[in-house]
Amino acid sequence: MRVSARAERIEPFYVMEVAKAAAQLAREVARSDQPMIFLNIGEPDFTAPPLVQEAAERAIRKGVTQYTQATGLEALRERISGWYAQRFGVDVPARRIVVTAGASAALQLACLALVDAGDEILMPDPSYPCNRHFVSAADGRAVMVPTTAAERFQLSAEKVAANWGDRTRGVLLASPSNPTGTSIHPDELRRIHEIVAARGGITLIDEIYLGLSYDPTFGRTGLALDDQVISINSFSKYFNMTGWRLGWMVVPEALVPVIERLAQNLFICPSAVAQYAALACFEPESLAEYERRRSEFRARRDAFIPQLQALGLAVPVTPDGAFYAWADCSQAARRLGVEGSWDFAFELMRRAHVAVTPGRDFGSADTHRFVRFSTANSMAHLQEALARLRAVLA
Ligand SMILES: Cc1ncc(COP(=O)(O)O)c(C=O)c1O
């Protein structure tokens, strides 16, 4: 069967190979004294809090399970708007919010609405791999711009200007980023947006980890800049609802009917049950629980990263958000008798039964030196993983 050139362009998720090998080995060592510890997983180890679970049950029992508006329940858009006001002090009217099937659908809608065949979108290298694939699925081209630790592994205004070409349509940033957990400084973001806007381009920011921010300097939404910035967000990370498939996007008002038309045709609407459940995310009791969990994520970061660094796995920029540590494993790999982060990840899995993600999926600039540790795991597992690393690297 002939497969479309578009589908052929989407690269495989190499991470899945590591995940498959880890799952296989996990079965073999499940009964040993060292069962596998999964630090390769990019999702919270928490599930939706009680009020959210109860709201989902109620929606199912009451049978409010029909299609909703393509842009999402009005009440949910209002609550998201209220969250921006209360948590970030930013006025984001509900009419600019479109609820989607996760950030993934929002990114897809944004790319389909704005990218034409051959258009180029600048993004930092390293980046979350699917983001370049959303551009490519819309027949655009993601231009990966290598970044440095000094730039917090983010694009700078200078690099955006230097890499802007005839086909450039805009930038796709992620702040805080996956895999680094680092954000763009708000002043730099303003400068980037000015450059993009002056060229008539689009500033698209994936803010899916914004809720999980630990530093007030960085934990601000790009939506504060002006009403032309497009922000992508989700119930997956801060709200601990990965498998519910619910997210949202905030777009300029003029773009709402365009996104609505695409969403109606491509998805009809996001999951009704997930939307009714998500209304309960914004109850004071749920928000208090989310804040408690955010403190827990922060405590894990603070405990894990210094110990990791002491083992020679340098984390060049302390993450200000999310639950990742982007660590240079060159030295540690040599100690295990291998070169590069791909072999290091497999060696670590075999010898310490600790699964991590090699840098390869996230780009090509220097990513062979880096691995991503996920700290979305219990403190006990994180400490045990460190003890095993210490033993194999000694
Ligand atoms: C940076 C980034 N953007 C988007 C997504 C997709 O998230 P969702 O579950 O909301 O589709 C992820 C998931 O890991 C991510 O890390």
TrEMBL record:
InterPro entries (alphabetical): Aminotransferase_I/II_large, AspAT/PAT-like, NHTrfase_class1_PyrdxlP-BS, PyrdxlP-dep_Trfase, PyrdxlP-dep_Trfase_major
EC category: transferase
Keywords: Aminotransferase, Pyridoxal phosphate, Transferase
Aminotransferase class I/classII large domain mapped to chain residues: 36-389
Entry cofactors: pyridoxal 5'-phosphate
Gene3D superfamilies, sorted: Type I PLP-dependent aspartate aminotransferase-like (Major domain) (3.40.640.10)
Keyword Magnesium: no
Biological processes, Gene Ontology terms: amino acid metabolic process
PROSITE patterns referenced in this protein's UniProt entry, alphabetically: AA_TRANSFER_CLASS_1
A Pfam family recorded for this sequence: Aminotran_1_2
GO MF entry, a single one: pyridoxal phosphate binding
Name this protein carries in UniProt: Aminotransferase
